[in-house]
Design the sequence.
């Protein structure tokens, strides 16, 4: 599973603007710390560049259930 995003800053923006727990954590940071977090996320996303977007690997649980 891959998360396709349009820019390196998209994951940070999504967590800041649409996340719940992470947005709360970000809100408690100083502007300097928040910028450092943003830069670290953007740096880690850049390695997943594919053309003019990014394809970030995501973990997933695969669960099978059967009824007897």
Sequence:
């Amino acid at each position: 599973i891959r998360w396709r995003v349009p820019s390196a800053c998209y994951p940070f923006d999504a967590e800041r603007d649409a996340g719940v727990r992470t947005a709360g954590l970000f809100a408690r940071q100083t502007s300097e710390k928040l910028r450092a977090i943003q830069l670290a996320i953007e740096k880690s996303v850049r390695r997943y560049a594919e053309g003019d977007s990014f394809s970030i690997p995501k973990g997933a649980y695969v669960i099978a259930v059967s009824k007897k």
Observations:
- The chain has a mean pLDDT of 95.
